Amino acid sequence: MNLLSKVFLLGFLPLSTFIYWKLLKTPRTKLWGLLIFSFIFYSFAGWQYSLLLIALSLLTFGAAKQGWYWLGILANLIALIFFKYWDFGVVMLRRFLNDVDWSHLFPILHLALPLGISFYIFKHIAYLLDVKNQRYLPTDNFLVFLTFSAFFPQISAGPISNFKDTGQQFIDLPNKFENKNAYNALIYITLGIAKKLIIAQGISSILATDFYLPGQGSILAFWTSSLLQGLYLYMDFSGYTDIALGIGYLFGIKLPGNFDNPFLAKNPSDFWNRWHISLSLWFRVYIFAPISRYFLKTWKGRFRELAQYAANWITMTLVGLWHGANSQYLIWGFFHGSFLNFHAWAVRKNFKWVGTWIDKTITLIGIIFSWHLFFTGWKELRITIPEAFGINGFGSFRNLLSEIPPHLFPVLIISILISFSGFAEAIQYIKIRSKLFGVIIGAILVLMIAMLGEPLNFNYVQF
Questions:
Q1: What is the pLDDT of residues 343-385, one digit of tens each?
Q2: For residue 307, is pLDDT > 80?
Q3: Which residues contact 13 (CB under 8 A, 6 or more apart)?
Q4: How far is CA 280 from CA 229, 230, 306, 312, in A?
Q5: Residue 191 falls in which region: left (phi positive, over 0), alpha (psi -120 to 50) or beta
Q6: Smallest Cα–Cα separation from 227: which of 242, 239, 211?
Q7: Distance CA 286, CA 129 (A)
């Protein structure tokens, strides 16, 4: 089932919300309700994957209780590697050992990726490490932990939350539906649908035109295409997140935000405080910090700068690998590690441009360039990267604009304005407490649902 489908928005969501608030009267029955709703939702992706989710949740819950932290982490990682990276690993092994036939031992399985496995396994690993490091005690309630793992608004593509912030809310669910939560839900869901249905889909249509042809593109077409790719991904993914947060509010659950106007980042590090916040925070806490400490301890502080650089490269390459077993994601991650290191080096050298508009401009250029890496395969990159530096000339604004359908110009202008003005996030609209504004937003929501045709898939669900 898709969050952006009429079946979900006009059937599943209102029915489950009605049952939750009108028929389920106690925190425990509400908890059971959320769990059942979540597995009904998840079963549309395949009931067998529901069994995997239950098994890994049970194993994680038990490992935390018994102190078998590394066993629980290993089991979760094996499941993730098997489903997400097996075929990639087999292909790499065959290329490395091209004279040996390993097909009978290591076949390519063409496994389908279980919905949300990259997200809920990271929740499990964070839980085990938090309990191990005594950040909080393990829960005694498996029903709570399973609901935390499977909560349907965030199972498909996050945000990745920790048990202390989100799981604890399932222990004492609210008895009364607050008007504030209803208003927040309306704003988040409406903005999320608008981002995806109108803006992201519109930008996708522009990208599908011939204004940028790899191998023939001008420098103007290259950078415009890269900017549009970034805007598309931002509107698509933040749209999903807004809908997920809005649904959470409908059930009295506050989920963590994932975006904070990333195109306004002051430097590369600030960008990762604004983009996919839950994932970058996860890697910062559970990968970057321990790796940095290890290098500093091993090298006894003699190579402090190198410790940071190495930790950045390793962490960001793993961030790329998390997105999928493709060379483009590894290159994208390594680029961001290099970009972070470049800025860290500039700060250490006390360059005068650090912290100025020049810093922001360099950051924006690097981020826009990175989106081309994210969406482009390795073979094609060898053709397109020279275009970023004008190998095919500057190009013509007139020719570029002529390739964009006229009815999509408003979408393009709106996406740029809200992304670069700080008005792309729902928090800006939550502050407007007005009944008239709420009525207008509600009317827009109804209109957009009426416009919705086939279910729309979000980009990050594939990860």
A1: 999 999 999 999 999 999 999 999 999 999 999 888 888 888 8
A2: yes
A3: 247, 250
A4: 20, 17, 21, 12
A5: alpha
A6: 211
A7: 8
What letter represents residue 212's amino acid? Y
Stretch 44-54: mean pLDDT, rounded?
91
Instruction: Provide the greatest CA pair distance for the chain.
Output: 72
**Distance separating alpha carbons of residues 246 and 262, to the nearest angstrom:** 20
268 CB-near residues (< 8 Å, 6+ apart): 336, 339, 340, 342, 343, 363, 366, 367
Task: Count, in order, helices (H) and strands (E) of the chain.
Answer: 22, 0
Mean pLDDT of the chain: 92
**Which tokens in the block code for residue 2?**
């898709």
What amino acid positions are annotated as catalytic residues? 323
* 185 and 252 Cβ atoms separated by less than 8 Å: no
- Alpha carbon distances (Å) from 175 to 19, 181, 225, 315: 13, 13, 49, 42
More confident of the two residues 105 and 432? 432
Per-residue pLDDT averaged across 69-93, rounded?
A: 91
pLDDT of residue 101: 65
275 phi/psi in degrees, rounded to 5: -110, 130
Q: Give the CA angle between residues 406, 411, 416 to the nearest 5°.
A: 120
Q: Tell me if 266 sits within 8 A of 359, measured CB to CB.
A: yes
With b meaning 16 or more CB within 10 Å and e meaning fewer, what string describes 196-205?
A: bbbbbbbbbe
Query: Does 178 score more than 80 pLDDT?
Result: yes
